[in-house]
Amino acid sequence: MINGAHVIIYSRDAEADRAFIRDKFGYPGVDAGQGWLIFKLPPAEIAMHPTDGPPVHEFYLMCDNIENTLAELADQGVEISSPPTDRGWGVLASIRLPSGGELSIYEPRHPLAYNL
């Protein structure tokens, strides 16, 4: 049966973004060869949302306290590209990757499926 999930983030500077994930988040990982790092993620969950438009996928990192998380990242020199915004279902912000891409981070207000 399914025993995990593999997330892929496409990047214009994958090497710099891999180093960022390793150094700023401290995620353990393995080298799949030639410096191709694959990181262990924290617990995850998946949700299906209805849409009238084309199907898309989104990726968010989750945290317990968005203000503290963003302050810790800012102290490490990470750019906060979108400040925290209350969305009702949680508080959402984004950080900038070295490649210029963004990662969304949110503090959820819904029950956490990975606590089941």
- The count of domains is 1
Distance between the termini: 18 Å
Percent strand: 25-35%
Overall number of strands: 6
Name the structural class.
alpha+beta
Main-sheet strand order equals: 3-6-5-4
CATH superfamily descriptor: 2,3-Dihydroxybiphenyl 1,2-Dioxygenase, domain 1
Count of DSSP H/I helices: 2
What does the overall shape look like?
globular
- The CATH topology turns out to be 2,3-Dihydroxybiphenyl 1,2-Dioxygenase, domain 1
- Please tell me how large the radius of gyration is: 15 Å
Q: Could you give the order of the helices and strands? A: HEEEHEEE
The helix content is 10-25%
**What is the averaged pLDDT score?**
93
CATH C-level name: Alpha Beta
Largest sheet: 4 strands, mixed
Per CATH, the architecture is Roll
Low-confidence stretches: none
General description of the model:
- The chain is of the alpha+beta class and about 120 residues long.
- The chain has one domain: 2,3-Dihydroxybiphenyl 1,2-Dioxygenase, domain 1, CATH 3.10.180.
- It is built from 2 helices and 6 strands.
- It has helices at about 15-25, 65-75, and strands at about 30, 35-40, 60, 80-85, 90-95, 100-110.
- The strands form 2 sheets. Strands 3-6-5-4 form a 4-stranded mixed beta sheet, with helices on one face.
- It is globular and about 40 Å long.
- The relative contact order is 0.20.
Features:
single chain; 116 residues; alpha+beta; 2,3-Dihydroxybiphenyl 1,2-Dioxygenase, domain 1; four-stranded mixed sheet; two-stranded antiparallel sheet; 26% strand; globular
